[in-house]
Specification:
alpha/beta, FAD/NAD(P)-binding domain, Enolase-like, domain 1, 3 domains, seven-stranded mixed beta sheet, globular, EC 1.8.1.4, cytoplasm
């Protein structure tokens, strides 16, 4: 038997590495198992998020956005730059440098906090044991008082469009295109599809998005979703709703995709296709038959509100359990579980977890949307404010979008905040904090905001809940 640990974490993604660091900070002897190997054959930390997900995609989103700004919009504000071109090879180099810095940072944090990094594939055995299979196939068994499963998720593949090297790719493959495909098909118009479609549309691709659902971004407040669809359409994204993909055929380095819509059977030819129809939990092979940890029919690990599994001392967090597949949700669960193991009281307010789509403009929200509130029979009042009436947004040459605050009609408690705008992902934090502290719309309305800032749009939306917005025509008179 090898070393015994107080905590062994399986997976070093945003949930796992944070859980491991937190546990070590609390004085627990901690190890973290990771199997991810980079192109050079070196084990790296950070999981999907840092290696082929959140971080590299944001690098390409930012560089492609800057390119479009310089090419199409700098002249509007008096900056003459002449012909602007994009060097995709350099963009990819930048993306890789960002990834390298981030994953290297985690390894340094492990060393600084005394976390033992175990290389290989972890499997939970019975009786608080973890088996680690190394790259050479050798197996080592470790014992732990507590185990945290943070194995993450992987892209969903669909039979009609099997992945085909260089032609039909998943979200990771879409980050490796060395040139913009002339005709790009994106299956799925969710968060990942919109972000990747935006990147390559900016670089010159004709992007067609095939979304099986009849509504656009149904999880987003529909006023925000409608505005977002309009803005992205103006940018050139051809979003086809109610388009259910039924098959595909590769012909001479092209992909013919067949789908059905309200008008019947259709087909369209693309140079490349990205499949972005969601992700599934990565739980296959990480649990021994005798481990006792229960899964549901979709492969998610059953946990309670504090991420305890059906086996005492075994926890699971992040994408492999219920709830939204978000890096920050996984991180917070990791902190919570480490605190619980160390004997502290800890919990998460799952109603105050923000979501962001990093298109331009960005879309961000926290809490309930209007359709959810109505479906639950909750009487609400809302306030909205357009960024076209915000001084800083106009000065930034970014007047697109709106902010919306939803409050309980009786108590004035904020139930949700929804934004589509430049930097919405940053602005949403004030909505999260407000909800975390149980604020009312009046609390935000009575808060002094710096001027000029785009955050003032949230202030005005909160004022508008009671009909008191200053910088727009009011429907109600102040009492």
């Amino acid at each position: 038997m090898a070393d015994k640990f107080d905590v062994i974490v399986i997976g070093a993604g945003p949930g796992g590495y944070v859980a491991a660091i937190r546990a070590a900070q609390l004085g627990l002897k901690t190890a973290c198992v990771e199997k991810w190997v980079n192109k050079e054959g070196k084990t790296v930390h950070g999981g999907t998020c840092l290696n082929v997900g959140c971080i590299p995609s944001k690098a390409l989103l930012e560089t492609s956005h800057k390119f479009v700004e310089a090419r199409d919009h700098y002249a509007e504000i008096g900056i003459e730059v002449g012909d602007v071109s994009a060097n995709i090879a350099k963009m990819l180099e930048f993306k890789e440098s960002v990834v390298t810095k981030n994953v290297g940072g985690i390894s340094a944090l492990f060393k600084a906090n005394g976390v033992t990094a175990l290389e290989g594939t972890g499997k939970v055995l019975s009786n608080s044991k973890v088996e680690v299979t190394g790259k050479d196939g050798g197996k080592q068994t470790y014992e732990a008082d507590n185990i945290i499963i943070a194995s993450g998720s992987v892209p969903v593949e669909i039979p009609p469009t099997p992945l085909t090297e260089g032609l039909i790719v998943d979200s990771a493959g879409a980050l490796e295109f060395t040139e913009a495909p002339k005709r790009l098909g994106v299956i799925g118009a969710g968060v990942i599809g919109l972000e990747l479609g935006s990147v390559w549309s900016r670089m010159g691709s004709e992007v067609t998005m095939l979304e099986a659902m009849d509504s656009f971004l149904p999880m987003v407040d529909q006023a925000i979703a409608k505005e977002t669809q309009k803005l992205l359409g103006k940018q050139g994204l051809d979003i086809k709703l109610g388009a259910r993909v039924t098959g595909s055929e590769v012909k001479d380095d092209e992909v013919v995709v067949k789908y059905t819509d309200s008008e019947g059977e259709q087909q369209q030819t693309f140079d490349k296709v990205i499949v972005c129809v969601g992700r599934r939990p990565y739980t296959q092979g990480i649990l021994d038959d005798d481990a006792g940890v229960k899964l549901d029919e979709r492969g998610f690990i059953f946990v309670d509100d504090q991420c305890r599994t059906s086996v005492p001392g075994v926890y699971a967090i992040g994408d492999c359990v219920r709830g939204q597949m978000l890096a920050h949700k996984a991180s917070e669960e990791g902190v919570m579980v480490a605190d619980i193991i160390a004997g502290h009281k800890a919990e998460i307010n799952y109603e105050a977890i923000p979501c962001v789509i990093y298109t331009a403009p960005e879309v961000a929200w926290v809490g309930m949307n209007e359709q959810q509130a109505k479906a639950e029979g909750i009487e609400i009042k809302t306030g909205s404010f357009p960024f076209s009436a915000n001084g800083r947004a106009l000065a930034n040459n970014a007047p697109e979008g709106m902010a919306k605050v939803i409050a309980d009609a009786e108590t004035d408690r904020i139930l949700g905040v929804h934004i589509v705008s430049q930097h919405a992902g940053e602005l949403i934090a004030q909505g999260v904090i407000a909800m975390e502290f149980g604020s009312s719309a009046e609390d935000l309305a009575l808060t002094c905001y710096a001027h000029p800032t785009t955050a003032e749009a949230i202030h005005e939306a909160a004022l508008a809940v009671s009909g008191h917005a200053i910088h727009m025509a009011n429907r109600k008179k102040r009492k």
